[in-house]
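> tool_call: predict_assembly(chains=two)
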Amino acid sequence: MPTPTSAESGKEKTVTKVPTGSTGTEATPTTEHTLGARGLGLGYGERRIVQDLDVDLPPGRFTVIVGPNACGKSTLLRALARLLNPTAGTVLLDGRDIHATPTRQVAATLGVLPQTPVAPESITVADLVGRGRHPRQGFFRRWTTADSEAVTAAMLATDVLDLTDRSVDELSGGQRQRVWIAVALAQETEILLLDEPTTYLDISHQLDVLDLLTDLNRERGVTLAVVLHDLNLACRYADHLIAMKDGRILAEGAPSEIVTESLVHEIFGLRSTVIPDPASQTPMVVPLGRHHVPGTAADVTGAAHDATGTAHH
Amino acid sequence: MSGTNTRTGTPTSLLDRAASAPVDAVARVNRLHRRRRTRFALVCAALALVAAAALTLSLAVGDIYVPPTDVWAVLTGGGDPGSRFIVHELREPRGLLALAVGCCFGLSGAVFQALLRNPLASPDIIGVSSGASTTAVLASMLFGLSGLALSGGALVGALVAGTLTYLLAWRGGVSGGRFVLIGVGVGTGLVSVRSYLMTRADVTEAQNAFLWLTGSLNGGRSWNQLWPLLGCVALLVPLTLLASRGLPALQLGDEAAGGLGVRVERGRLALLACATALVGVATAAAGPIGFVAFVCPPVARRLLPGHGAALLPSALTGAALTCLADFTAQHILPGTQLPVGVVTSVVGAPYLLWLLSRTNRAGRGG
């Protein structure tokens, strides 16, 4: 049973799709779907957000998209999920224009968790997760045991099985987010796009979500694209990092190869020190603001304060 | 599976546990689904029974009392000529009209509220009913139309008001809150047009129009008037239920629905069109009976908590409620027949106030 220790997570470049012994009955995907875009232009009304962008999500990898607010990362994700019509260029799923493919057919391959989904009033967890089966159900096809199995597996993986008949209204933010991820899992797709799935979660739940996604990626070969705000978690969990600014991709590749102090400055306009993450050896960005950093111009008075207060460095 | 609280810090993969999804957990989810289906069927059956009882009551009671056994005999094709005339010719058109109209309002309200995710989004509040009634008043006063032509006018009015609201609310898509606000605006405009027309009318005309505007099943109702309505109901109700296939996904928000393979705008447009047509048809037949579309969906949802939109139960609730309200309107004051809209308003207005006060407190709302 592959039980990666935290030290190797994020570094491993070979996608492990080991049929995990007796338990891993559904661990090996048969095909690898590809998702990318050519000459993509995106915008809302008059406002152009992305222009002439080419991107490919490496199949079977964990891709994380980072960038400052309003850089177009969520817009890009929505376009890749065919939720937004491009103003130019095409989004390609398995080499075909995604908008030329029936949307139900796309939904069997590609799942998406948007930033702010809405839970109908007083809906139960089981019912909500069950709605992830929508693309799998035909006009008159009733609920089957296969649906129950997928829903149960999704709830178990996200640790919400105990909440099955609870109302979603009563759940905490962390529980609710895990339920939404279960909805996406119940769809059983081989590509999964998530827009800031860790927002509103405390640090421990953030790690839970990212660990779960890594499990999905490694054991089922699910191709992931996730928009994240936390650079350090992005560096730790991503196989492939896409750094965006002003609707363009400034750099992409393995975090250890692309994340440097100058890149961080270029993207966020922020001075920083990049050191190896003591736990994972991936790049860790230590931001430098104006205060609490001895030697910066603005912190002449603060330096003295630091010397007595927080001088651990 | 000793417990799921060992989540944090465990080195084992969560998927390992999921892959060995315990059979009893699957069985439990299966059972939950079966139980939901059973409960849905039971509630629907119970509501249908209430509606049937209300119909029987309205067929039995009147100037001449016909015992329920005789009513059933007539309904099943038997009965003596006397009770057959009273039940079949005099009372049944009105009773069936109440059921059909209530069913339309209940279903339409449930679609609007679920689709726009707003309990205030009922056709009598967002201007669709006003559209129907304004064109009906216009048609009868300016063009002297009546009967089927008048009904057609009301239907067109509902569709025009609905389309206008949709177009004004459109901004690369339609959101619930904006639709409700613009719908209220469109409704207010139409009501003022209607009021102006009423001030220009002579007294008897105005009185007739006013009676119609309150929503009334009074007056000689015959089978000939009923058939067009029943035809529309037989067409629109299945069409609406068919269009509602994407509704469970649409309720999760546009993006989630799109991700689940629903054609969001097309699905929403189809549902709005169906719901608007239902209101138009019902309003054309009986006037804008207030609050039925507004009150029935929450009652149905209360009966089936966590079942989503509950379209069919809401339609049945509407049928039962309208039939009972009409019965009350006919018999509560001896010697007078009230318009049914008065009774439904007595039920609906307090609910609207309660909902508004509660909505404000929770900081939500249109």
